[in-house]
Design a protein that fits this description.
42% of the residues lie in helices and 4% in strands. The protein has 20 helices and 6 strands. The strands form 3 sheets. A two-stranded antiparallel ribbon has the order 1-3. Helix 2 runs antiparallel to helix 5, helix 13 runs antiparallel to helix 15 (432-446) and helix 14 runs parallel beside helix 15. The two termini are 37 Å apart.
Length: 534
């Protein structure tokens, strides 16, 4: 039984990464007897490497697929592919309210997040007992595991609400009859882990090049600030964000916005000064450790699968804001004679997103790989574009939101305009509610298609205290009304994916996803379903 538990915790292969951070160039062992493991520093390092692997795993269906679904549930993204079966996404994206709606998508995400938590639990419990030449390194490894465990629980609680809390190495019999902890209880554990991590993790500048990509003090502070923000704990979030940014007499940690927005999602700028935390990838064709999204989200006329296509509503949001720079680096349109950063497309070789195959004549530029940078087997997971989890622009916009909520509008404008100035947009001079709305709009444009929008519109409140998503989705929602007019030719002409997305949204149900039914069945009902799912 001990071997079974460790078998979940450590991958059954030896991983060797190239083209990404050297710290991942560490063997991850197969099944081991737990009593004979964790006897030296090397084995502890291997376990921590295994913990990092669980952020995205080695394919797209465990986690990346679910991240796409999050954006599909908003006004920014269609399912997109109208030639293949979309059932894995449809019930969630169209808010049908069926308990099995999440299907394998929710089930895989839930299962693999808990597998990641288990790996972290083992590291947290076993590493402190190992003798290290440098105790600070041992403490750092535990801090990294706590950061990663907190990240995975945060991913779960914001999607499903209260979660079963498994904080140690548990045998199957020990979790029999386990129930969901409340949302505040889950957040409290996340906060504890991140506070512990902050105490022992180095600054990004204190890591050597071989450790690039590891969790840092700034990453833990930024993540904890977001956890506080989601709970409207503005004072707590403010202090952490000031520490990351270097405001209020705190020293700078070295984070900066990249000069050009177009470089943010570029292979050449993996682990840049704008990055607080990102998923490390590899181009080594011996393994499936590249980012899948460039292919998954690409045009079917350009070797892609066409899942997760931008909406015309999102495109119009950029146009209405006069935001040409971010528009061209976020959305590629059918018929484009040029794609920024890729000279392959010309007036005689136009980019194609054919109407018959795609709900929208658009694909995302953010995870697009220029032809000259594509791996030799582009349709496989070998593209070394790191996935940005938390970046400095997000930190600045969180700070703007927090300062506005605390009636410190001058400081809020400073942070907001720092992001806007990068893309040559005029300073915002508004205050109060008008400034709040400008910050919210800026988050939509800056962080478009980065798995942020759904959680923002779920947590933001309108003037009546309801979630902002209620103004967007539902029979009278702005996105639903917009699509009734069907002004966009691509979205109007291809009804293989219906344009009535969001019509069935129910506020009492759809602020959370359904709990996977297999989890309810396997626990004999001790884990209960979220309200409203049938």
């Amino acid at each position: 039984m001990k071997q079974y538990i460790l078998g979940l915790a450590i991958a059954s292969c030896t991983l060797s990464f190239t083209g990404c951070s050297d710290f991942l160039d560490t063997p991850v062992l197969g099944q081991q007897d737990l009593d004979g493991y964790f006897v030296n520093e090397d084995e502890c390092k291997q376990q921590i490497t295994g913990c990092y692997q669980t952020v995205f795993y080695d394919d797209w269906w465990q986690v990346q697929k679910f991240y796409l679904v999050g954006d599909m549930c908003t006004d920014d993204m269609w399912m997109g592919n109208t030639e293949q079966d979309a059932s894995a996404y449809e019930d969630l994206a169209f808010y049908t309210g069926i308990a099995t709606a999440g299907g394998e998508c929710c089930q895989n995400f839930w299962q693999y997040r808990y597998k990641g938590i288990l790996r972290c639990n083992i590291a947290i419990e076993r590493i402190p007992a190992v003798e290290f030449a440098d105790a600070a390194l041992r403490d750092r490894y535990v801090g990294e595991a706590k950061f990663l465990r907190a990240f995975q629980y945060f991913d779960l609680v914001k999607n499903f609400g209260g979660m079963p809390l498994v904080m140690g190495m548990k045998m199957p019999a020990e979790i029999e009859g386990i129930q969901r902890a409340s949302v505040p209880e889950v957040y409290a554990k996340i906060e504890d882990d991140l506070k512990d991590a902050i105490e022992v993790l180095p600054l990004k500048s204190e890591y050597g090049s071989a450790d690039l990509g590891r969790a840092t003090k700034g990453a833990a502070q930024g993540m904890l600030a977001k956890v506080y923000l989601y709970q409207e704990k503005y004072e707590e979030a403010e202090d952490l964000l000031q520490r990351v940014i270097g405001r209020n007499n705190y020293p700078s940690q070295g984070y900066e916005l990249l000069k050009d927005f177009g470089n943010v999602w570029s292979i050449a700028y993996n682990n840049s000064e704008e990055s607080l935390f990102e998923v490390q990838t590899s181009s080594d064709i011996s393994y499936n450790l590249g980012l899948r999204m460039p292919v998954v989200c690409g045009s079917r006329d350009d070797s892609g699968w066409a899942w997760g296509l931008p909406t015309s509503d999102l495109e119009n949001a950029f146009k209405n804001a006069g935001d040409e720079i971010r528009l061209q680096w976020t959305i590629i349109r059918d018929g484009a004679t040029s794609v920024p950063g890729d000279s392959y497309w010309t007036a005689s070789n136009k980019y194609t997103v054919s109407t018959a195959k795609h709900k929208s004549g658009r694909v995302t530029r953010k995870v697009y790989i220029p032809h000259a940078e594509r791996s030799s087997s582009y349709d496989a997971a070998h593209n070394p574009l790191n996935y940005r989890i938390l970046r400095y622009a997000d930190v600045l916009l969180m700070y703007a939101e927090v300062e506005n909520a605390l009636s410190k509008d001058e400081e809020a404008r400073w942070a907001l305009n720092k992001v806007r100035n990068r893309v040559s947009l005029a300073d915002v001079t508004a205050s109060g509610t008008e400034l709040r709305d400008a910050i919210r709009q800026e988050r939509r444009l800056e962080l478009a298609l980065e798995n942020q929008r759904l959680y923002d519109i779920r947590r933001w409140k309108n003037e009546s205290g309801k979630a902002v998503i209620c103004d967007i989705m539902g029979p009278n929602g702005s996105f639903v009304k917009y699509n009734k007019e069907m002004k966009d030719e691509y979205e109007r002409n291809n009804q293989k994916e219906s344009s009535d997305k969001g019509r069935n949204f129910d506020e009492s149900r759809d602020l959370l996803f359904p709990i996977p039914t297999t989890e309810i069945t396997q626990t004999n009902g001790s884990i209960v379903q979220n309200p409203g799912y049938k």
